[in-house]
Amino acid sequence: MRLFFAWEALAVKGKIRFGGVVVGQWRGRQGTVQVPRPALRSDTLWLAGICAARLGSSVPYLAYAGVLPLLQAEWAMSATAAGSIASTFQLGYAVSLVILSALADRVGARRVFLWSTAATAVTTGLIPLLSRSYPSGLALFALLALVNGGTYTPGLMLLADRFPPGRRGYAIGWFLASASLGYAVSLTLTGLLVTVAGWRGAFWVLTLGPVTATLVSAWTLSGTRRGSVASGIGSVSFAEGFFKNRAALLMMTGYTFHSWEVLGMWAWTPAYLAAALALRGRGMASATGLGANLAAIFHLMGLVATGAGGRLSDRWGRTSVILMMLSLSALCSFTFGWLTQAPLLVLLAVGVVYAFSAIGDSPVFSTGFTEVVDARILGSALAIRSLAGFGAGALASLTFGVVLDLTNPPGSAPRYPVWGWAFSVLGVGALLGVIATAWLRALPESVRMAGGKR
């Protein structure tokens, strides 16, 4: 009897503890006690595991860019053919985000994440084994993109399911930061290995990334319920839950314009840095190599920016941090391209701030989206958002090139002297993102984010 009253006393306070761990919650004296499974991993250890899995699965993402000159010579590809593999990869990744995010709503984010990590390992290993020409390379890199997308949005769903709003920005920030570190590792390892082991040897080593990720994710998610976070999509109308959700649509709109800026910037910054160095008298080959190295440093800023952005949004609110980051990145977009003749340290300093602010709001957009969308349709909503964001990024890269051609003297490629107008086009997108986010902040629905901190 004493045990019963002790149990009831704890329940009345709202939480049920066993050995100091909250294992359930009481919803009123006449309600029911929900007793979910005890956590088999601490949140910190679980987060470290899923971030390590994301890091490893991201290692092959930029590998093609690192070995492109060697593949172009070996497979006798024109620049158009070589570029088509990169374009197909991005298109395949966007498609995978749509399909696998929707699939996660039905079979569970845990399963999709595990399947995709393992498939990434297998496909990365198949590339050096089976790629012998342009057609086989095109097919295998497209397959890599199609399976790799399942390590992104399903991972966000797992994080949203695990962490409450007060800590979600921090968790998602580190998840995205781990991908940035994976991209940097990819470029660094590829650059070091191709000179001693060739591109195939480099790929064999890079395969260790997703192989390790598969093992780590299997261990990390072994304590996660099998259905996580599948919901039975038929239990809620997608049209009602998403297309009539003003907060979700504005969050997606802001993310789309954010993607326009950051993906366009990522696509053209290496070439811009190479042109700036070449205009200072450096040979084009040397300028290209150094420009790629400097761009890799900018990618490393993502490690700091995404971690900081997510954590700050937990404290200050989602829209506050988004508005700060977008405003700063817009200023950089309108400035960065005009610095080709500025002192190199000034150019790099602005570039570092640009890289930080352009990606720093990414985890905040993702976190806020999970808070304004019904969890039962989150995977499908993330699929739509991903299609809009990556579609905008692809269009931004193309628009940037068109503006670059229109504003430079004929025959000046690749030493284009004028880059300011092209980068300013990206800045316009950032300003539109500011407008969408300010509108979102004014809505009463925005109090769902960050525990009411908007």
How does this structure look, described?
With 454 residues, the chain is mainly alpha-helical. The protein has 3 domains: 2-34, no CATH class; 43-230, MFS general substrate transporter like domains (Growth Hormone, Chain: A), CATH 1.20.1250.20; 237-454, Growth Hormone, Chain: A (Up-down Bundle). It has helices at residues 2-12, 43-58, 63-74, 79-107, 109-130, 134-148, 153-162, 165-206, 208-220, 238-243, 246-279, 284-316, 318-336, 344-360, 362-372, 378-406, 420-442; strands spanning 15-18, 21-26, 33-34. The protein has a 3-stranded antiparallel β-sheet. Strand 2 (21-26) and strand 3 (33-34) form a beta hairpin. Helix 11 runs antiparallel to helix 17 (420-442), helix 12 (284-316) packs antiparallel against helix 13 (318-336) and helix 13 (318-336) runs antiparallel to helix 17. The longest helix has 42 residues, at 165-206. The model is unreliable at 1-40 and 226-234 (pLDDT under 50).
